[in-house]
Amino acid sequence: MAKRGPLTDIGPIFQMAYLPSDFDAALRHWTEVIGAGPFFIMENIQIAEMTYLGQPTNAVISAAWGYWGDMQIELIRAENDAPSIYTGDYAVKDRLHHVCVAVDDIDAARAALNEAGATILIEGKVGESGAVIYADAGGGPGNVIEYVKLMEGGPELFAMMREAARDWDGNEPLRRLG
């Protein structure tokens, strides 16, 4: 029997993320055609202590999160052209950009990525208690995996979003956070 890869047991995918060419059109598609939502947007996010391929970067994004059943959909808009996975070779548009796995131990995720021979693209802090790693495990652009240790309050925020989607009537498809 073949050995399973080192990334298998880190955790399940809970999010699919997209970098649309037209953010507003993508939001309309996801809410009006697919029926996902409502989406909650945070603008001008800068990950603390962010590095891209080991070098500091000041990349800024805006992101909107909504639920399609139990799957979180993230729509991302780059707000500057700083080096990151949202600019350059990894900035694939209008198709799956990356998937996300929530982890309790970011160091264990990093160790599994190293064992798999993955290239760590981005690392940074999320709030005071969280962390994030984006990696290419060999699939190239469009196949990036994000591992996030949610900051304090993160699971509750996502639970609120998921609950808002359960009986959503289509009104107020975009809601602002912080």
UniProtKB/TrEMBL annotation:
UniProt superkingdom: Bacteria
Organism: Novosphingobium sediminicola
Alphabetized InterPro entries for the sequence: Glyas_Bleomycin-R_OHBP_Dase, VOC_core
Keyword Oxidoreductase in annotation: yes
Gene Ontology MF terms: dioxygenase activity; lyase activity
Record-annotated VOC domain positions: 12-150
Keywords: Dioxygenase, Lyase, Oxidoreductase
Cleaved signal peptide residues: none
Record flagged with keyword rRNA-binding: no
Entry protein name: Catechol 2,3-dioxygenase-like lactoylglutathione lyase family enzyme
